[in-house]
Amino acid sequence: MNAPDASALAALHTQAFTLPAPWSAQDFLGFQDDPACIWEWNYAPDGQLAGFALFRHIADEAELLTLAVAPHMLRKGIGRAVLDAGVHRLRGRAKSCFLEVARTNMAARAMYEQAGFVQVGLRKGYYRPNDCAAPVDALVLRLDVPSA
Q: Which of 1, 22, 46, 107 could form a disulfide with 17 if both were Cys (CB 3.0 to 4.6 A apart)?
């Protein structure tokens, strides 16, 4: 199936995120032709975008920039599938992969831990909610990417 367009990515991101703030179609367009980016996506049986992940690698490091799953598709393995597919594609390109996750996002933290990510840092007040709620810390996680 073809890659989703930027507006579909932005729509799903808006459904999936309030913290951090969801990305716009323009944000996604900025990554579209970047050769350092690795995209993974998954479609539901009805053809609708169910989830996606965006990685970027530079030298021997990579970062998971974002991963989103449609709310009605949660707990069906979509997030883990796009995560694992992206990490697999990083083999031979990156030695490690980093990400930030909100301290309060227990489901994502559990998924990343099960995938082998470990906490290597903390960014105090990294996420600033739009509703003037207290800032939320981000955990910095790292995965040693298996060699090819």
A: 22
67, 89, 138, 111 alpha-carbon torsion, rounded to 10°: 70
The CA-atom distances, in angstroms, between 40 and each of 12, 134, 139 are 14, 33, 23
Q: Where do the H-state alpha helices sit in the chain?
A: 6-16, 25-32, 78-90, 106-114
129 has pLDDT over 80: no
Q: State how far the Cα of 124 lies from the Cα of 112, in Å rounded to an integer.
A: 20
- On the 0-12 / 13-18 / 19+ scale of CB atoms within 10 A, 11 is middle
Contact 136, 19 (CB under 8 A): yes
What is the pTM for the complete model shown?
0.91
pLDDT digits (tens, 9 = 90+) for 2-51: 578 899 999 999 998 876 678 889 989 889 889 999 999 999 889 899 99
Helices H / strands E in the chain, number of each: 4, 6
Q: How far is CA 95 from CA 46, 75, 123, in A?
A: 37, 29, 23
